[in-house]
User: What shape does this take?
Amino acid sequence: MANKVAIITDSTINLPEGAMEEYNIQTVPLIIHWDGKSYIDQVELTTKEFYERLATSKTLPSTSQPSISAFVEVYQPLIDQGYDIITLPLSAGISGTFLSASAAAGQFPIGRIEVLDTKSVSVGLGIILMKVARAAKAGASLPECREIALDVARRVKIYFSVETLENLRKGGRINSAAAFLGTALDMKPILEFRGGLIEAKERVRTSKKAHVRLLELTEEIAGPQGELEMVGFVSAAAQPAMEELRQAAHERFTIKEEFSGELSPVLGTHVGIGTVGIGFLA
Assistant: This one.
């Protein structure tokens, strides 16, 4: 009989309420560095505290991946209890978290721990995780969980709009988008996750237009009045805009399952206040 599978992720994830407890998902948090002090993401600095401080701060925090030992500390007890482990961190294209998790996995017997590059983040990562978590709970083996994760990761899509590219530029998290959107200060950039990287999609005049455009882009994949199997809505201290987006999505699509939340402090650092996004599986 196959070992039970435990699921590990990181603190940048957004999940439906109660999912962590229901599926016994464990997170290894990233670190935020701000004005000479370091904070464990969402442990020593809550999302609410972070956005309140960011709104008035003259300085921009930076972020770093968890240490190898932080993953070892989570892996060891689970391996001792006879679990196999699947680790699903945010995209390797924007963080070294995948490398820390992989290095830690190398300290355990081969075949017990899978670390996958999800090429996703936030609500997109949450969708991948929910599919894997349900399979694991139903008794899927580690290889089966891996195949589900890879399949969903290929199909999940994330679009988001930011108020400014300044944070992404300073954090070195944007490539082609910088040239594409660089000088148009009054334009609102629309970005997507593509191949595990943040890529520029287009730009529009206002935030409102940008949010409408997020749904139009979703429709290009799902089709008019299309069915969305699972959707996650997310914002960086912009709940009213996110709620409008959510309601508009319900008018446009048949949504089987949804969840929403705030971007973690680590992600908020890089995209800035006012960001609104959608992740979906059509």
In short: The CA atoms of residues 192 and 240 lie 22 Å apart. The first strand starts at residue 5 and ends at 10.
